[in-house]
Amino acid sequence: TIGSRMINARAETVAEKPAFRAAFRQRRCVILADGYYEWQAVAGGKQPYFIHARDRQPFAMAGLWESWRERAGAEGVLESCAIITTAATPSVANVHDRMPQILSGAALAAWLDAGTKVDSLGELLSTPVTTKLAYHPVSRRVNSPRNDGPELIEPLSDQPSDKARD
Known about the structure:
Blueprint: E1 8-10, H1 21-26, E2 28-33, E3 36-42, E4 45-53, E5 59-69, E6 77-87, E7 98-100, E8 102-103, H2 105-112, H3 118-125, E9 133-137
């Protein structure tokens, strides 16, 4: 279904998009991570990068969750989530022009509070990300879901790692 393929929602339009409108009002969540991957076009293909907090601590990405059925009357329910994205901060803009909306403190609490007014949520999502990020190139083995393991986030040995700027 289309719902199972929607993994990102743009912060600027999430409240109006039919696919996300109801979840934005009623099914907000955070997705905890210690990093995420982005790909950059380079000669010979795309180079994956692991983007993480400079202090290597986990962070919370704004998200929405939904339950989907393949068709009316179907038995199985698919639970899915989408990460809300925003314009990239200067620290990662060299890799990609978008990034997850990272929340902390009062913004995180307000995002998860069912009592937060919908009008306030747009302002919350336009708050600049303050988490300091760094990145490094990783193996193209991350391109296959068959591969798993801590080595997938290790820097490539032949390229500089932990690039970062403010």
